[in-house]
Amino acid sequence: MFNTILLTIDLNAPASWKMALPQAIELVRASKGKLHIMSVVPDMGTPLVEGFFPEDFEAKAVAAASEALNTLVSAEVPEDVDVKQHLAFGKIHKKVLKVIDEINCDLVIMASPKPDRVREFLVGSNADRIVRRSPVSVLVVRA
């Protein structure tokens, strides 16, 4: 069984948790484990792009994401589920892989939309990067 499950979500895309969250709750309840829900506010990518944003952008983005994550967890996670929230700022796949190690995760659950070959070829997907690099099993739920 899985004692520590990490659910990764995109707070701007309800499809990233609408189907994956019920799966995570079901597995956590079955194992009497702990659910960790994580969202990452992506960084700007390069210092050149960062220069176009206000100086306090990161702080404001993280504060807004924190509030949205609290609201989501309060509204969607039943009280009988042991849950911990994680919020990070940076490269999504790198932050998720770091938390996998930090919490001794047994399973990662994430949603991923139907593949778009052109987009995948040009930029790849965070789900793909996490699946390929994760030291634990990853359950990908089609969104």
Describe what you observe in this structure.
There is one protein chain. The chain is an alpha/beta fold and 143 residues long. The chain has a single domain (4-142), classed as 3-Layer(aba) Sandwich (Rossmann fold). The chain has 7 helices and 5 strands, in the order βααβααβαβααβ. The protein is globular and about 50 Å long.
Task: Give me some keywords for this one.
about 140 residues, alpha/beta, Rossmann fold, 5-stranded parallel beta sheet, 7 helices, 5 strands, about 25% strand, globular, Nucleotide-binding universal stress protein, UspA family, UspA, Rossmann-like_a/b/a_fold, Universal_stress_UspA
The CATH architecture classification is 3-Layer(aba) Sandwich
Instruction: State the CATH superfamily name.
Output: HUPs
Give the SSE string.
EHHEHHEHEHHE
Helix content: 40-55%
Number of domains: 1
Distance between the termini: 24 Å
Oligomer: single chain
Kindly report the spatial arrangement of strands forming the biggest sheet: 3-2-1-4-5
What number is the mean pLDDT? 89
- The low-pLDDT segments are none
InterPro entries: Rossmann-like_a/b/a_fold, Universal_stress_UspA, UspA
Protein name: Nucleotide-binding universal stress protein, UspA family
Family: Belongs to the universal stress protein A family.
